[in-house]
């Protein structure tokens, strides 16, 4: 299997090198094959001509770009050298074409940067124009800083005559659903082609083979649309061998994935007095069914109930050979020590209420614009031009990058097919947006604790059923969202 993996990496790298070489211009020496639309970009041509763009930007303007880890000396220190070169090229083209300046801004402290940007904007003197949120979990706190409910930000969707954020070749339409407030897009999410962001099922090939399940059978089940909870349960039962310390699976990320795999979600959009907001949906029947399913498996002794404090615990246990299956990010096989384990990769199994497979898109990186710049149209246009990915989603360059990434994760053809197609089943799963929202009268708890952790021990011990528990906390969670996300109260 390792020989197979090395051969794939070499082949994919060769494709990428050929694509890059083919895309180099003799005049510029830089990549030019299928790049993101540049200053004469065809995507926006129906809305703004090059001349109109020059009218949007005004010579001499300065636009500030903030990221939590950035400096003039080393922009984008956590990114690859290729990414840095691409950004430098985009910056130079924008500045030279329009006579503007893009200034990088970093925080005084990386530990307090969310407060720094919020406080400056709240005081009427924002320290930046374009804000890189760094991760999705920062979005809510920054959006509703000091109960402003987005009042500090430019609603970029209102400027669709200036910039298009609906082009799925460059903008993540799935994740941007979580950036819409009362029908208006506030934040843009560049498309991330990485297959590592998708949720999949890893299985220990040897453990399943010992239990009577070969990988060809599993991949065929998946292709036939029959990779479902019942089959997952059957395999977990057969593969559990507690004498060897092997469980069929663990709670970990499995429960979160099973909720979405059963046509459910932790939060859903509702009309609240004419305003579209999100409220708790974890007590809806389809969501509760996911908990009940795994709890029933746990009662049979097939689920490790201790591995739920974090995904890293789950994946480390799997790669030590202690789990037959785990549901988590595909990237776990690339960013952790797999200890030479021979594994395969499937989709998340379908729940009984679902018509098709699903892969929850949990993490994303939004970008927004603070109010205060004299030219908000220019800010929106710059965000669209400068933040968008360098290459289109369907470009040969991106296909080559994906091939290299897949070859670093997959050990067999079946896994390759899973990773090549998993994006087709992406569904928005924005529950991490709210994980730090304070819950309760004293605010001493938060959504993550209340929803994912507090009830589990009671479930395991039989103190409360999932339905009883989630019904009991639903109103408290909804009130927390109204107050701390939307600055509204009942």
CATH H-level superfamily of the largest domain: Periplasmic binding protein-like II
> What's the CATH first level of the largest domain?
Alpha Beta
Total number of β-strand segments? 17
Strand order of the largest sheet: 2-1-3-14
Number of domains: 2
Main sheet: strands, sense, barrel: 4 strands, mixed
Which strand-content bin applies to the residues? 5-15%
Radius of gyration: 24 Å
Mean pLDDT metric: 88
Low-confidence stretches: 1-51
User: How far is it from the N-terminal to the C-terminal residue, by CA?
Assistant: 59 Å
CATH topology of the largest domain: D-Maltodextrin-Binding Protein, domain 2
User: How many helix segments?
Assistant: 18
State the shape: globular
Q: Write the CATH architecture name of the largest domain.
A: 3-Layer(aba) Sandwich
> In percent, how helical is the residue content?
25-40%
Question: In terms of structural class, how would the helical and strand content be classed?
Answer: alpha/beta
Offer a few descriptive terms.
D-Maltodextrin-Binding Protein, domain 2, alpha/beta, 39% helix, disordered N terminus, 17 strands, single chain
Produce a short descriptive summary.
This protein is of the alpha/beta class. The chain is built from 18 helices and 17 strands.
Describe this structure in words.
The protein is of the alpha/beta class and 490 residues long. The chain folds into two domains: 34-193 and 364-393, 3-Layer(aba) Sandwich (D-Maltodextrin-Binding Protein, domain 2), CATH 3.40.190.10; 195-362 and 413-484, D-Maltodextrin-Binding Protein, domain 2, CATH 3.40.190. The protein has helices at residues 2-22, 50-56, 81-98, 113-122, 139-143, 205-210, 215-223, 229-239, 254-261, 285-299, 311-319, 332-335, 376-387, 396-409, 413-421, 447-453, 456-461, 466-484; strands at 62-66, 101-105, 130-132, 180-181, 184-185, 199-204, 249-250, 267-272, 275-280, 303-304, 325-329, 343-346, 359-361, 367-369, 426-428, 438-439, 445-446. It has a four-stranded mixed β-sheet. β16 and β17 (445-446) form a beta hairpin. α9 crosses α10 (285-299). The protein is globular. Mean pLDDT is 88; it is low at 1-51.
